Amino acid sequence: MPSKFSTALKRAIQVVYSLAVWFAVFTCMACVIIVWAVTAMFVGVREAQTRFGNPVMAFCMRLTLSRVEVIRHPAFDPQRRSMYVQNHVNVMDAHAACCALSHAFCGVMHAWQFKIPFYGRIMRHAGGIPVQPGSANQFADVVAAARERVAQGLSILVYPEGHRTRDGEVHEFKKGAFLLARDIGLPIVPLATRGMFEMNRKGTWLFKPVKISIYVGAPIETVGLDNDEMLAVLSRTRTIIRDFAERGVLPVDAEPASPPVTA
After folding, report:
1. Cβ distance 129 to 109 under 8 Å?
2. What is the CATH number of domain 4-262?
């Protein structure tokens, strides 16, 4: 049984490590804002996002000292604009998405998140779509904003659980994101992460370096589907994400065309 001293020492090391991670990540994100603003004057906002914004956000994952592995389905097209559906675990979820995706994307998020220091400013630069709870025209406003972002060349990232998991399991998906994808003509692409809950979880600011695996699935077409068919897409997407996130199981047709990439 570990002694009280060894337990206290491990705790102290984790606290120091976690403080260093927070400092490094916020410093890195501040640099993102500066570099993005400067380079955008020469290559445009979205090109700057692809060249500099996303890679630096992805680099934040390395600052946790975690090993990141990305597995992509052979049918995944990295250049096709899509609706990426990701399980929601912790504050680094968007950074994990940046490790897996090579082109610019924006998120759909509660409006209050734009007030978070550094993160909120980056989300504005990225074209994030605010959701105003209680708005009478909430869905129509989001659809209009999403169409505008797609016209700008952006994909869209959503967390259909609506909240971060508290137990590491993938919870029920809300249907709004799936209906949004159909209405703006985007395919659904499952984006599942495994290990993020062990790295950091809701309710604590402490981090732990672990192995993170990210699976990017095959596109699931949505154009022309009715509501019942979209519910079937929702169920299929959740199953793919849950199987990988909770058990590390890939779909039977998901043998990668090349070895997994370590980000």
Report:
1. yes
2. 3.40.1130
